[in-house]
TrEMBL record:
MannoseP isomerase/GMP-like beta-helix domain sequence ranges: 294-349
The protein, known as: mannose-1-phosphate guanylyltransferase
Pfam family for this entry, one: ManC_GMP_beta-helix
Naturally occurring in which organism (per UniProt): Cohnella terricola
Domain Nucleotidyl transferase intervals: 4-284
EC number per UniProt: 2.7.7.13
Positions of transmembrane segments: none
Length: 358
């Protein structure tokens, strides 16, 4: 049995001011006529029934998910009482999935990615599931880099390569953090580094054993929660025990320590839409390299991203390499080179007690 877990608790802060605390990036229509989370669910429905798809989020977004994915069974919506990073989130969700579908293979995916070649993506997930089921294996999808991106983590492939269903399966040598520009350039040139997509496939028994081995503090709490779930006290377990879990990422807690990890190199038109500059990659540009959306008048404007969401005219003259986003209550003007540093603005809004704009 194959199941899936969609991680949908993020705030998408680098996509501010369009992405807000009460309506983050995954619930927006960035590309196409569906929100990103609706697209994520639709892709998985090509592989499994909706009953096999689980979504983990926080209480703030539960109603949004129910509104956007109304056919998702309510028991498949896993609510965290607080954000504890990805390791506790996956730990809690794995217990729920294990209770419903014992010994299943779990596909873990973010909710806010763009994937253009969905048929190829689904085929790769099938192969990744086969690899995961063939042993105590963790499988991740590595995106073949097309440029030296400094905003992604990377996966280094070892020289142990096998083939399954005409796809290469590489043993992972190591995971590395986001590099500087010179290091990223060397990764791309080497040919054996891949962008870390944050997509993982494993058997429920495999990930439980990894928690036991590498994150024993979380595993001990997991066992307490599992006991309470079986005793019908799931809500008590979530609200009391979940908050005790160390706040840590799955990458740091397990991926950087386990030695049974494999990566499948992928080219299926992936983008994590991590910041506004992603729109340059996923949208058509005009003759001057601009990405335009809304009521825009531009003259002598080059390589800009300009969006108006309220019908108000945005006029530009003689600007280059800027991001201009106009919403009902905020107008953002930002150089493209600073797009990854959006959190500096959000930090200052908090310092100045202007949380209404977050």
């Amino acid at each position: 049995m194959i199941t899936s877990l969609i991680m949908a608790g993020g705030k998408g802060e680098r996509f501010w001011p369009k992405s807000r605390t009460n309506l983050p990036k995954q619930f927006l229509n960035i590309s196409g006529n569906k929100s990103m989370i609706q697209q994520a669910v639709a892709r998985l429905e090509r592989l499994m029934q909706i009953e096999q798809i689980f979504i983990v989020t926080n209480e703030l977004y539960a109603e949004l998910i129910s509104a956007q994915i109304p056919h998702l069974p309510i028991e498949n919506l896993i609510i965290e009482p607080s954000g504890r990073n990805t390791a506790p989130s996956i730990a809690l969700s794995s217990l729920y999935i294990e209770e419903r579908y014992p010994d299943s293979t779990i596909i873990v995916l973010p909710s806010d990615h763009i994937i253009k070649n969905e048929g190829e993506f689904v085929d790769i997930l099938k192969t990744a599931s086969e690899v995961a089921e063939s042993g105590e294996n963790i499988v991740t999808l590595g995106i073949t880099p097309t440029y030296p991106e400094t905003g992604y983590g990377y996966i280094e492939s070892a020289n142990e390569i096998s083939t399954l269903n005409n796809l290469e399966v590489h043993r992972v040598r190591r995971f590395v953090e986001k590099p500087d520009s010179i290091t990223a350039e060397s990764y791309v040139t080497s040919g054996n580094y891949y962008w870390n997509s944050g997509m993982f496939i494993w058997k429920s028994s495999t990930i439980l054993e990894c928690f036991k081995k590498f994150m024993p503090a979380i595993y001990e709490i997991m066992m307490e929660i599992q006991h309470k779930i079986k005793a019908g006290a799931a809500q008590e377990a979530i609200h009391l025990d979940f908050a005790k879990m160390p706040e840590e990422s799955i990458d740091y807690g397990i991926m950087e320590k386990a030695d049974n990890i494999f990566v499948i190199p992928c080219k299926f038109g992936w983008d994590d839409v991590g910041s506004w500059t992603a729109l340059d990659r996923i949208n058509e540009r005009d003759d001057f390299g601009n990405v335009i959306k809304g009521n825009i008048l531009n003259i002598d404007t080059k390589r800009c991203i300009i969006e108006s969401n309220n019908g108000k005219l945005v006029a530009t003259l003689g600007i280059e390499d800027l991001i201009v986003v106009d919403t009902d209550d905020v107008t953002l003007i930002c150089s493209k080179e600073k797009a990854q540093e959006m959190k500096l603005l959000l930090k200052e809004l908090r310092v100045q007690k202007m949380e209404q704009y977050l």
